[in-house]
Specification:
Layout lengths: L21 H4 L9 E2 L5 E3 L2 E2 H8 L3 E5 H18 L4 E5 L6 H9 L3 E4 L2 H9 L7 E3 L6 H10 L3 E4 L2 H14 L3 E8 L21 E2 L4 H11 L3 E7 L10 H21 L5 E5 L15 H19 L5 E4 L3 H4 L3 E13 L3 E6 L8 H5 L6 E2 L9 E6 L8 E8 L7 E4 L20 E6 L2 E6 L13
Parallel strand pairs: 4-20, 5-6, 5-13, 6-7, 7-8, 8-9, 9-10, 9-11, 11-12, 12-13, 15-17
Antiparallel strand pairs: 1-2, 2-3, 4-14, 14-15, 14-19, 16-19, 17-18, 20-21
Bound molecules: pyridoxal-5'-phosphate.
């Protein structure tokens, strides 16, 4: 990547308070291995991002293997300390690739999938189907059949139509399938309206307060080839406030007790879902795995003590928090614009096609000039994407140093729900993905080519 020597068009704006250099200011949002070298170039996993951009181009998604592995270990250690035998299923929807699956298998994680596509990649990556849970409110007949044929450990049944279909398919195949029922407990997760899922008015799950959850259980218990192992809730994401887990678990514990009393049904398994938060900006603090573990474990123990229930086998489903911090999006500056008395724009070579989250959820991020990590920012500029939507803005009012054309911009905390939600909008080419570890950079997905765009056209 060569830097142009063209004079910058951005004008230095005054920044109110003194700020640290980005390598210090962003320490909590960058991957665990992030460092800067003497020249101020960002290093991740022992790899210099300027070299990575030179070898693989931009936009480039960089994943730090060490951060993924460490996060997995923290989750299992912290949850198993409070709920013996607790398991973790990574929520594939946050980002899935065979390379990631291989790491998860080695770290002792299972997977939650929501489509035939995710199931296919999970199996291709070597995940034992026994450790896969199949979710989703719109599973088709083909998808359910694929899940049954693959031998997935559990299907998390979402609604009456799915239950009827699964009953029919398992009777046809005369093969037992373990299922969990996804229950909507009617609890406010206090997160973005588009990512809250535990309220009564939700497209997900069997509503509890209306009696539909109970009716579903009765029906499932009558199905000859369905083995109902327990209940599942997922309240929303990200949950910076951890109180809603207690409310959801108390509600589901009372429901489990009711079902025992009225139908003689005893739960063996329970999942509080995912939703563990991620620190996206320097002024945020996402709770760490141990805080979720204590909150969730206490609520489960309290519910079981209160109602005289056995402690169920527990599995959690973190997605965002497992891969989010490991990922950094790397872009190149392609144009700059100063609008007097208004704003400075810096446009990069990616945007909403690889990161739809700011446009969709008003998500906020930090940004840094990846070759000036030791330089204290001196201006405020808005980082715009290159796509033909005014809403394609990646970071509003980022603190940056003076930037040259072609300079690299790093956006940390980019590992979750970005590549997973990518598109070919404006027929953009999907970015390359590189996994870094101990100075080694492994291309795990090549960049799309122009010819790839024609591949599906007949
Ligand atoms: C059922 C279920 N489990 C787990 C998750 C993962 O949530 P997060 O990525 O916030 O941990 C989701 C996210 O939507 C979900 O729907």
């Amino acid at each position: 990547m060569t830097n142009s020597t063209t004079a910058p068009t951005t004008v230095e704006a005054s920044i109110a308070a003194p700020i640290d250099s980005p390598i210090d200011a962003l320490a909590d949002v960058l991957p665990l291995t992030a460092r800067s070298n003497a020249a101020g170039v960002l290093q991740i996993g022992g790899c210099n991002v300027r070299d990575l951009a030179g070898a693989f181009g931009t936009p480039l998604y960089i994943y730090d293997e060490h951060t993924i592995r460490q996060t997995c270990r923290d989750y299992l250690r912290d949850f198993q300390a409070h709920v013996p035998g607790a398991r973790a299923h990574y929520a594939s929807k946050a980002w899935l690739s065979p390379a990631l699956v291989r790491i998860l298998v080695e770290e002792g994680f299972g997977l939650d999938v929501v489509s035939a596509g995710e199931l296919h990649v999970a199996l291709a990556g070597g995940m034992d189907p026994e450790h896969i849970g199949f979710h989703g409110n719109g599973k088709t007949r083909d998808e359910l059949q694929y899940a049954l044929d693959s031998g997935v450990g559990r299907i998390i049944v979402d609604n009456d139509d799915e239950l009827a279909l699964l009953d029919e398919l398992t009777q046809e195949g005369a093969k037992e399938q373990r299922i969990m029922l996804r229950i909507t407990p009617g609890v406010d997760a206090q997160t973005h309206a588009k990512t809250t899922t535990g309220l009564r008015d939700s497209k997900f799950g069997f509503p509890l307060p209306s009696g539909q959850a109970e009716a579903a259980l009765v029906r499932a218990l009558e199905a000859p080839f369905l083995d109902v192992t327990g209940f599942h809730i997922h309240l929303g994401s990200p949950l910076f406030n951890i109180e809603p887990y207690s409310d959801g678990i108390a509600t589901i514990g009372a429901f489990a007790a009711d079902m025992k009393e009225r139908h003689g049904y005893e739960w063996r398994e329970f999942s509080p879902g995912g939703g563990m938060a991620l620190t996206y900006t320097a002024n945020q603090v996402a709770p760490q795995a141990d805080r979720y573990a204590v909150q969730i474990a206490d609520a489960i123990h309290t519910a079981c003590d209160t109602h005289g229930l056995p402690i169920p086998d527990v599995h959690i489903e973190p997605g965002r928090s497992v891969v989010g911090r490991a990922g950094v999006a790397l872009y190149s500056v392609v144009s700059r614009k100063h609008i007097p008395d208004t704003r400075d724009y810096v446009t990069v070579d990616g945007g909403m096609a690889d990161n739809i989250r700011p446009a969709m959820y008003e998500s906020r991020y930090e940004a840094a000039a990846a070759e000036q990590m030791n330089t204290v920012p001196s201006l405020v500029a808005t980082i715009a994407g290159k796509f033909c939507e005014s809403g394609d803005v990646l970071v509003r009012d980022a603190n940056l140093p003076t930037l040259q054309l072609g300079e690299l911009i790093a956006i940390p905390a980019s590992g979750a729900y970005q590549i997973a939600m990518e598109s070919n909008y404006n027929l953009a080419l999907r970015p390359a993905i590189v996994m870094v570890n101990d100075g080694d950079a492994r291309l795990i997905r090549r960049r799309q080519t122009l010819d790839d765009l024609l591949d599906l056209e007949l």
